[in-house]
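User: Need the bound-state model for heme C:
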Amino acid sequence: MGKKLLWIPVALLGIGCAEVAYLSVKAPNMARPSDIKVAGTPEQVARGKYLAEAISGCADCHSDTDGTRFASPIKPGGHFKGKKFPKEAGLPGEFSAPNLTSDAETGIGRISDGALIRAIREGIGHDGRVLFPIMPYPEYKSMSDGDVQAIVAYLRTLRAVSNPLPPSKIMFPVNLFIKWVPQPAGKVAEPDRNNPVEYGRYLAAIAGCKFCHTPTSGNELDTARLFGGGHEFASGEYKAVSANLTPDPETGIGRWSEEEFLKKFYDYKDYAANGPPQLKPESFTVMPWLGLSAAEPADLKAIFAFLKTVPAVKNAVETHPIKKEKS
Ligand code: HEC
Ligand code: HEC
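Assistant: Bound-state model below.
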């Protein structure tokens, strides 16, 4: 299913020859991958699995998923073998989320730990290519060194599955514009897990809540209205709009109790365990309910505590607008 549709090339028309020539030679801001070797302790593997599956959504994009069912569950055998994004996602080009199993030919078996870490946080592929930011590296840039290493430790435990996929092809001129997106992450300190508001802020970034739940203005997030909702996601004729998560009492979650907030997520545990129902146009969503239903209570409480501190935004959102007219 299509997830992040911010880069549709609306604002990219009307650039001149000089700009194109400049952009063609512009080198992205890229650091060398580090020569780290991740230890792969049981603690790292467990933390990495939790982040990759429940919190940061890696499994949703990098697995073969069933888009005909609510919230696109992972198909049996599809776990981390990668997928080609469907045309309906409306992306500027053809995109594959690569196979992240340890297969040497078609997976990450031959990619170093340092190159994986750079790809995840900085958006530079193992071959030096600028990754298309549907891979949410701008969000993962704030992921701590410990957490990104834990994810790599977990990926290394995945049984090799051979699944060749076509490489992504990014349309001109989007392929030039994305050269600005990658930024070196440097060293990222561990967040303070004993401070719920700070830890909630951290999780809301690396879980993509901030990205998906902030309205857009042109091709950018409208940072004056963080978490204000209204970010639209379409796939073919389906559409979902993100909810307002700010403390506004009328249009946000100002009147929700912590208990109600947690229940929203845990209500999907049954779907995660037994398989969700067939997708109906009015239930279409990109909200990663299945993965997040496994988020720990303390983590959801931290996110809730943090959301209570963001400035209230008045923005009434209809999260499941009626199916768009067939064209
Ligand atoms: C919204 C979908 C999405 C999510 C979520 C996502 N990815 Fe990706 N990822 C992609 C796509 C698509 C590409 C390929 C981009 C391209 O080809 O330009 C990619 C590329 C990569 C690469 C680059 C491999 C190489 O060529 O060197 C790695 C590694 C990776 N992702 C790991 C992760 C990890 C780990 C997570 C979770 C922390 C994650 N991804 C979350 C979609 C996603
Ligand atoms: C890929 C985009 C995406 C990500 C990532 C995402 N959301 Fe959502 N979220 C949505 C959309 C779209 C909806 C509206 C459709 C629905 O309810 O399923 C939604 C709905 C919700 C709702 C329901 C609100 C209501 O009024 O029923 C809550 C609560 C929520 N999200 C919280 C979060 C939190 C917290 C995170 C991060 C841990 C998060 N979301 C991550 C897109 C996203």
